[in-house]
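Lab notebook, page 48
Experiment: co-folding of the full assembly
Goal: obtain a model of how the components sit together before planning crosslinking
Operator: M.T.
Materials (sequences as entered):
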Amino acid sequence: MATAFSNADRAEVLTQALPYFKKYYGKTVVVKYGGNAMLTEDLQQQVMEDIVLLHLVGVRVVLVHGGGPEITGMLKRVGKESQFVNGLRVTDKETVEIAQMVLAGKINKTLVTYLEAKGGSAIGLSGMDGRMITAKMKDPALGYVGEITKVNPVPIRDLLERGYIPVISSLGCDKEGNVYNINADTAAAKIASALHAQRLILMTNIQGLLKDKDDPTSLIPLIDMEEAEGMIGSGIISGGMIPKIECCITALKNNVSKVIIMDGRIPHSVLMELFTDTGAGTMIVKKKKAEKDTANKNDERTDD
Ligand SMILES: Nc1ncnc2c1ncn2[C@@H]1O[C@H](COP(=O)(O)OP(=O)(O)O)[C@@H](O)[C@H]1O
Ligand SMILES: CC(=O)N[C@@H](CCC(=O)OP(=O)(O)O)C(=O)O
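Observation: model returned without errors.
Model output:
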């Protein structure tokens, strides 16, 4: 097949990636995949191929997934309308059962199958397995929406040690055996904290954090926690981006080195972020090293 790249070009690309392979070898990267970045089978397969590549070059990669649109679709099929309060789905007993079927059943197993088909070894678990995610009711008005009280990282570490990619769905349970529906960004952030991850990558359906959410050219490549908090206060960050940024900030305050929000619909965005000079999306750091105007995302990316 004719291609625009010569073998020399390909070798050059690999050589350029070498310092990044070295940087991330043996490091823990938690990737959250979900929402509209998960809409087609092709897209899911492409992202899983990237995850396998990360795994094969020695990154300890953990995949945490959501699947909100699929839960909404399944609820519709049984005649139930979804209702959200501040980005969280109001979850009655029937809804949590359906969330469990969709997340722990269909999506988790589909992603595991794709990872295996692409040459990885993956094991799919939900937050209930091995008491990985303990939760309590967040607010009785929301029903069975879980607030995470504890993450047990041992089963995840065991799988990583044995060379598996853990694939975790965002459900949790309490001591009484109640199951809770948990926002997948929140679950990924808490898991990243429990693992002291080098990177938490949240894949979403927008380029990253934008100065103006309706202007795709206004991407902010690098921001720190204080600036991000200010942008929530000033209304630049709104809607579903608010809980996303809040859980990024909590992760940074709790053992996670850096967080990236990126567009999961762009092919190979995760590889671009980790293995190229340019990166992708928005990186959130605790505190920028340089002053605001001179801060360079690449300085932050190549150092921690
Ligand atoms: N400043 C901003 N930059 C980027 N997106 C923003 C911003 N403010 C609000 N948003 C909105 O947040 C959305 C992402 O949140 P959400 O839809 O909950 O993502 P997901 O379903 O992937 O978890 C974007 O599609 C966008 O409409
Ligand atoms: C409590 C709550 O809202 N849970 C989410 C869980 C799935 C999720 O977060 O999926 P995405 O990442 O695809 O949005 C829900 O029911 O949609």
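Interpretation: The CA atoms of residues 260 and 283 lie 4 Å apart.
Next step: discuss with group before ordering constructs.
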